[in-house]
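stuck on this:

***
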Amino acid sequence: MTNELPSGPKLISTGLIFIAVGVLLAWRFLKRIRRARRCTVPLSAVVTKRHRSIQPTIHGAGNLTTLAYDYNGRHYERMAEEANKLGDVGEHRDIMINPDDPEEFLANARGTWIAAGIAGTVLGIALILAGLACIVTFIGVRMGISV
């Protein structure tokens, strides 16, 4: 077994893929954390509609749920972005809404969103660093620096 590194194009392409995936993950999960920080008002909502998605969305495939709730004298009926089952029609569900934009809400536990957001962001940053390491290794090999 030799101690050879992969060829230059493989290192560069692997590095770029890691960086691209890492940036996408970090961006997506940072958005998730910001959303969880905005949604701070607890409310009770009612499941008004459930249907199965024919095609996957960015939020997942499968069950789509519409929730209805009242806030400051206004009635809201919005589809939950979470793809998991949130209850059957007529069931009550605790949600957290954004007081500045009551149409924005979280149907799952706020702490879960923050924890998942932090974990996803850390994973994204790790992938970015791994990608940079691939590229730095390639540059080091090209300059004759042994690893």
